Amino acid sequence: MPKRRVHVAAAAILNEQGQVLIARRPATVDQGGLWEFPGGKLAPYETGLEALKRELCEELGIEITRAQPLIRIHHEYPDKHILLDVWETRQFSGEPFGREGQAVRWVEIADLYNYAFPAANLPILRAVALPREYLITPEEADEAIFETRLIRALDEDGVRLVQLRAKELDEAAYIARAEKALAICHARGARLLLNAEPAMLDKVDADGIHLTSVRLAELAEKGERPIPDNKWLSASTHDQQQLDQAGQVVCDFVSLSPLRVTPSHPERPPLGWHDFQSLVEQACMPVYALGGMSRHDSDHARAVGAQGIASIRDFWK
Ligand SMILES: Nc1nc2c([nH]c(=O)n2[C@H]2C[C@H](O)[C@@H](COP(=O)(O)OP(=O)(O)OP(=O)(O)O)O2)c(=O)[nH]1
Ligand SMILES: [Mg+2]
Fold it and tell me: What residue stretches are annotated with the Nudix hydrolase domain (predicted)?
């Protein structure tokens, strides 16, 4: 018999302190006793957003006035195929409480990992913790210019996630730049990923590693995550096979490119939004759109299921 297909709308509800609301599923229901993002199944003919509004009113007594798509997750449970359609909302009226007697709690995003969630939820924990914009640094020979531009991107554009990509530097120069970039990022609450061998984390205590698609393919053969769980792991992907490989090495998120034709990779055919969306729909982690992207594309990227946009040029001025 084919598995039952269940479509669920759920929400990451954020307050002004940046905490997120979680609720405990009653012991007697499916996945009972585990924590969840409030929500429930779509009724026939309801859209995800309509179901979300109804469920949050029924379960928490709040009216949401605005919500944005956060991530969609397909997950196979032993008895059913579930589509979790997760939204992010910061705008609602009323004070949420457990209207069905369930425990509810505001928690820091960094503390979410201390709670037991259903197996499908891991990508949601990553998506709520990740920003909408991802800066990839360009080759920049001059250290002073590098520093000024990085600081500008963090202070003026509010960038909070940076990948240090500097293929033209030798190891000693890369490490020196990484130490400097790390101090600049951490002073502003931003995270820094190193585009380098995973072993580079032993030399620079950055927030994680970004794998090129070549490194990703090598590591996928071993099928294990190369760095600890408390560090971020991301990878460059261009197609379904590489997205699968990112799943095999348990990446926390990926970039998928090129969305448009770019001066840096004129030879690669662009994916365009349609193909991008179909790849993202099947991905099991947050995906950033890369390739000719700017912040103006952010809302559209989000609407087709992306975490947001990654860019070099838009943030480097
Ligand atoms: N709401 C919610 N459901 C989740 C999460 N993670 C996860 O695997 N699920 C699963 C558990 C359930 O099988 C299904 C949600 O169903 P539900 O029991 O909340 O549905 P509902 O609110 O419409 O409740 P009911 O009327 O069917 O009792 O999705 C999550 O974070 N939030
Ligand atoms: Mg529910």
Answer: 4-130
CA-nearest residue for atom 17, ligand 1, is 40
CB-based contacts of 120: which residues, under 8 Å, 6+ apart?
73, 75, 77, 82, 84
How far, in Å, is the centroid of ligand 1 from the Cα of 145?
A: 51
Which ligand is closest to the CA of 115, given by its number? 1
Q: Are residues 93 and 192 in the same domain?
A: no
CA-proximal residue: ligand 1, atom 7 (nearest): 118
Could you say which of 77, 112, 129 is where a domain stops?
Answer: 129
Co-location of 186 and 233 in the same domain: yes
Judge if 114 and 237 occupy the same domain: no
Give me the residues near ligand 2 (ion), CB cutoff below 5 Å: 40
Are 280 and 256 in contact, with CB atoms under 8 Å apart? Answer: yes
Q: Residue 299 is part of which domain span?
A: 133-315
Annotated binding site for Mg(2+): 39, 59
Instruction: For residues 230 and 293, state if they share a domain.
Output: yes
Collect all residues with Cβ–Cβ distance below 8 Å to 145 and sequence separation of at least 6.
Answer: none
The rounded distance, in Å, linking the Cα atoms of 304 and 103 is: 33
**124 alpha carbon to ligand 2 midpoint, in Å?**
16
pTM: 0.94
Q: From the CA of 118, which ligand is nearest?
A: 1
What is the per-residue pLDDT across 161-204, written as a single tens digit (0 to 9) for each?
Answer: 999 999 999 999 999 999 999 999 999 999 999 999 999 999 99
Which of 129, 155, 188 is the C-terminal boundary of a domain? 129
Q: What share of the chain is helix, strand, coil (3-state, %, to 5)?
A: 35, 30, 40
Q: Say how many CA atoms lie within 13 Å of 274 toward its Cβ.
A: 0
User: 83 and 50, same structural domain?
Assistant: yes
Residues with CB under 6 A from ligand 1: 6, 8, 10, 29-31, 36-37, 39-41, 55, 82, 84, 118, 120-121
Residue 15, domain CATH? 3.90.79.10
